[in-house]
Amino acid sequence: MTEHSEVMQEQTHAHGGAHVHRDDEGSKMAMWLFLFTELLLFGGLFLLYGAYRFEYADGFKVAAADMNSFIGAINTIILLTSSLSVALSIAAIQRNQKKLTMAMLWFTILCGLAFLVNKYFEWSHEIHNGIYPGGPALENMSNGEVIYFGLYYVMTGLHGLHVIVGLIFIGFIMVFISRDKITSTNFQKLENAGLYWHLVDVIWIFLFPLFYLLH
Amino acid sequence: MANGTLANEVSYLEYQGKHKGIMGWLLSVDHKRIGLMYLMAILIFFFVAMTLGVLMRLEMLTPGETIMKPSTYNSVFTLHGVIMVFLFIIPAIPAVFGNFMLPIQIGAKDVAFPRLNLFSWYLYMVGAVLAVFSLFVGEGPADTGWTFYVPYSIRSAQNVTLTTMAAFVLGFSSILTGLNFVVTIHRLRAPGMTWFRMPLFVWGLYATSWIQVLATPVIGITLALIMLERFMGIGVFDPALGGDPILYQHLFWIYSHPAVYIMILPAMGVVSEILPTFSRKDIFGYKQIAISSLGIALIGYLVWGHHMFVSGMSDTSRIVFSLLTFLVAIPTGVKIFNWVATLYKASIKFSAPLYYVLGFIFIFSIGGLTGLVLGALATDIHVTDTYFVVAHFHYVMFGGMGIMFFATMHYWFPKVFGKMYNEKIAVIACTIIIIGFNVLYFPFFIMGYMGMPRRYYDYLPQFEGWHILSTVGSWILVSGIVFMFGNLFYGLLKGPKAAVNPWGGTTLEWKVPSPPPLENFDEIPVVTGGPYVHDKPTYIMHPGKEGINTNGGPKTINQEAAL
Amino acid sequence: MNPIVELVDNSFIFIIAISVVLLVGVTAAMIYFVFRYSEKNNPKPDQSITGSTTLEILWTVIPLILVLAMFFYGYEGFREMRNIPPNAMLVKVTGKMWFWNFEYENKKTSDTLLILPQGKDVRFELMSADVNHSFYVPAYRVKEDCVPGRVNHMWFHTTNVGVYDIECAEYCGMNHSYMLGKVKIVPEKEFLEWYNKIDSVKKTDSLSVPTGNVKTDSLKTLQVKTDTIKAPVKKTDSIKVNTKDTLKSKK
Amino acid sequence: MSEHTQTGEITAAQAAHSEEHGQAHAHQVSYGTYFMVWLGLVALTAVTVTIAGIQLGSLTLITAMLIASVKTALVGYHFMHLKYDNIIIKVFVLVCLVIFLTFWVLTFSDLSFR
Ligand code: HEA
Ligand code: HEA
Ligand code: CUA
Ligand SMILES: [Cu+2]
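That is the input. Now the predicted structure with dinuclear copper ion docked in place:
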């Protein structure tokens, strides 16, 4: 009873997020719901991919032969590793190892940047070869190939955008950690950043075989 | 505690916080103030779109050019549709009255994420500004219809990009509101408020929110692809590059069919609030009504193909979608029958909100039942893309959700503003609206079956009489609506003060002052029974004072509530 | 008699009849209750009524049966629409902004006016040269979209001699509402006479009829006003024939 | 983004409740476990690349998707802590996946019979 009415009293004074009780479970739920919207955003594109792959199986194969599956595989490993480091950072903060947490997040950011650099080289290589929407190389290609590259740019582009957003998200979280706003008893924000980063990873897990391993 | 009580005597309308004057609204994270800000914005766009509707009717008064050129007409119906769908009917009830009433009805002080809530409002405004902007720049607003079908939307030189961008942004506003509501309903219910003690409006919002979260992203990406297609020609929707226009239609309707249930479910929720209040009796079949909301939402995901029966979709697909379409009628019927049964052996207090609800049941049934004509393959192939469809969706959208929006404004008017309107005038206005509505839209059914295609600037002579009749109906409707808004507006300025519970409602919002104080409750109430019980209290408003240990007794209930 | 028209109209009447019964029932009950159980007539509500499992089952199962029947009727009509008679004569229909082009089996072509013999099954291959259109003949209760990049099918059986409307039912830009045409059904002999004339019909063919309310000058402006339209389709040869169609011809 | 992570107010019931699982749901997973999961993921990546090298015809796609799904399950279950999450989150994920699946099934009811 006593403990309880204290809680309620606190509620009475609190307003608009000024002095509120925390609800980590609710915060996590919101993050998951947000991930669903991301999933379905990409879902529309995956559906298009599936449909056109079905319609233009040959064109897709021809187009995919151009892709460098080695770079793709490297990028996959990079993202998987960054996922590991985010997961480890959460485990570290739970154990109150702030230094390790920060190190893991720095490592994650490095991985993210490496991924983007790789993507940059890949894209510029293709653009250099005239392969881009409306580019000269597409003129002589079949419909299937044109659509393959259209989807390739849109999907990896949107994914790259998510990598960037994820990096900024993690950057903010690191500021919070350094200011002890995120601690071993209050780390839902970090957990949410991790969830987001893992989703970015999961999407790549599907993009990789779909665009690079289609021989 | 003394401090808290004091703060609670000031209504949310008068409260002066950190920011004063207009900033106190624009920066407020209070769910009630945000709800009112939505109301203002939404009403403005509603008026704009209605005016466009009346202009279309004027154009159709005579064959050939009456007041505008064909290209203007095309932009007008596009803008009418886009504004009505994305700026009015989808946000109207959830964002205005959901925001306002949901926390109060479940016994919470605010939504789960108040700042996110404000952010959604700003997103809404950005989307709205983009839509308005498209009027004035470049070649003028989109002329594609609200469906943005490719390849026309890729080729049109009008401002399709801006308009789709507007819809895109509005989609995200809608998603965030839905997300906020789902978490609020899961996490913030008062002690003892189990799932089956929630008001049915909350159930309606819950189902709606799930559609918002799980369907809206699909239209987001689809519209983004149209923009990309226009800028860069990526080919996914452009048949010249091998793209498949029918695939676009799939993606569009994957969202836009579930969206029609975003429009109607909150309205149905309000029906379930108003009926027991004015019947002075528990609602009939509470659980069935609650579950049918989820049922409608769920089946709603499976029927989008009924918009594509003549698109060249495979025959198998047409048959499957037709069959699935008919299944939506079942949970909707369950609701209708339970509502009517609620009136049985009740003690009915006739009043404007109830009158609107009766109008709703009649008009929405017409709309829904003609939806079945559209769901059946043979008949749809004849009447699709004709005025029959236009009639159907005005009956369900305007006659269903629109009329319920009016009902909602009347029902919660005293609570929101703490004032009363003139009951007699409200009833007269409602009568005019119902008559005008049917004169305006019923001829559409007849024309449609005769073969009058929709989105036609001009028409063949055999349709002239019906078009004239319908235009006359639009004038009757306009007068009714002006009358209704005038009455509400007068009530707002000059109306008598409203009591805490003028209708004898049983849900929690009728237990707090009108208008509610800033934090809704000075103490979180404890719930002990169902939402529509009239003969005994089912809430303990001051559990602290009465020494109720909310932690002790209904422990099992708490656990269930925490899910 | 035209079987499609009959099937469509019958299923329409069937659905509407059930709907009217339901609507009248619901509305009548509602209005009766409002008066019978008004505050005045029934001051004390019966709080014990909160639901009834029997009723819930009844009004789930009966509507289910009713809608399945509706589905079935709709399906029957549809099956007929898709059941193209194997020896139907073929007309290729191409929708262009904003007029119709018809091509007969002997390569004879015609714009806007479609001439058909009486009492024949006619199959249409529907194509588009630019954006979506929809070939709609209200008198025969059929329509199907013309989608660029693919070929759709439709058929009907011509019945009475006369002139019927053709309308474009899928929004296609500025002059969508002027994308009209006429189908003229003539006795077979007359048709063959026309059909075997070598030159293709001009728009001012003696057989052409005034197209209703559409002022004659609006027909002339049909093709000029393309200003709101950006680049036309790049590759017109990309139209592929839909080989996987499930609609096998009647055996 | 920080909008989403912002905590909300909660009612008395949940406040009392949160001591149990509302807040400190700190289920500590050992570093080693995460490492093993990562090893598994890398190994699966290697398997996909190898399988793509051999000509398996239509099986290529199926195996690639199967492996991707297994990888996703690993990430979701361990890295994203679904394993330790409240049942309600698991139900949410399931609902989302089922609805996404129906989009596929119904769209392909058109494409594959056209
Ligand atoms: C609020 C919005 C709303 C709602 C609730 C509905 C509800 C329904 N709609 Fe509607 N619809 C639209 C908005 C809505 N629609 C819009 C905007 C379009 C056009 C979009 C465009 O192209 O621009 C459209 C178009 C549309 C089409 C496509 C037409 C075409 O383009 O060819 C179809 C086809 O099946 C359809 C069917 C239905 C059905 C079966 C329902 C059902 O949910 C109805 C269920 C209700 C009832 C059945 C009535 C009440 C029940 C009883 C009285 C009980 C007894 C009933 C039985 C025994 C059957 N609608
Ligand atoms: C909620 C949805 C909604 C609502 C309420 C309406 C309301 C109206 N609609 Fe709407 N309509 C749509 C949604 C809606 N519509 C959609 C989605 C389309 C499809 C678009 C497309 O094809 O892409 C459509 C299409 C559509 C068409 C078909 C166009 C065509 O195919 O050629 C027509 C034709 O008449 C029409 C007319 C009207 C009219 C006359 C009203 C009337 O009800 C309006 C009544 C107006 C008033 C009563 C005005 C009263 C008030 C004032 C004028 C201001 C007074 C000011 C103060 C009091 C301050 N609409
Ligand atoms: Cu062609 Cu409309
Ligand atoms: Cu629909």
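Confidence is low (pLDDT under 50) at residues 203-251 of chain C.
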